[in-house]
Design a protein that fits this description.
- This protein has about 140 residues and is α+β, with helices and mostly antiparallel strands.
- It has one domain: HIT family, subunit A (2-Layer Sandwich), CATH 3.30.428.
- It is built from two helices and five strands, in the order βββαββα.
- The chain has a five-stranded antiparallel beta sheet.
- A hairpin with a 7-residue loop joins strand 4 and strand 5.
- Helix 1 crosses helix 2.
- The termini are far apart.
- The relative contact order is 0.23.
- Bound molecules: zinc ion.
- Zinc ion binds next to loops.
- Zinc ion (ZN) binds next to loops.
């Protein structure tokens, strides 16, 4: 079976990519705990964070830091949570979500996002990211 994150370019979700560079693609999750919950997915397949080459790991964390700032601005969140997961999809990915209260990252709060909601996250974050040094890596669409 093809990995869902390795085959992103063959899925409609490719339209919702917020940012992409040589190492990482960022898109809204379809199972958010909060509005603005996004995923940072390495372009190459790694089972977990500890098998990523240092260069990739450090790069993705640096991009996560920039997107945390963007999320704080767009969603007026006091904090942003970072969770590195990969149990449900065996291709490591980082969850980045605005949080307002203790327990906001509780997986019990996961709900199914509509395609329209996901597109709105993409549009809002692309727009804000275009104001930063990340701009060259924002898809044109
Ligand atoms: Zn994969």
């Amino acid at each position: 079976m093809t990995c869902v994150f390795c085959s992103l370019d063959q899925q409609p979700r490719v339209q919702q990519i917020i940012y992409r560079d040589d190492f990482v693609s960022i898109l809204p999750t379809n199972g958010p705990v909060q509005g603005g919950h996004i995923l940072l997915v390495p372009n190459a397949h790694y089972e977990d964070a500890f098998t990523m080459p240092n260069e990739v790991y450090q790069h993705i964390l640096a991009v996560a830091r920039q997107f945390a700032s963007i999320l704080k601005t767009v969603y007026q969140a006091p904090r942003v949570s970072l969770l590195i997961s990969g149990m449900e999809i065996p291709h490591v990915h980082l969850h980045l979500a605005p949080i307002y209260n203790h327990g906001d990252m509780d997986s019990g709060k996961v709900r199914k996002a509509t395609s329209e909601e996901m597109q709105e996250v993409t549009d809002r974050l692309r727009s804000e990211a275009r104001k930063t040094s990340l701009a060259p890596f924002i898809p044109i669409a």
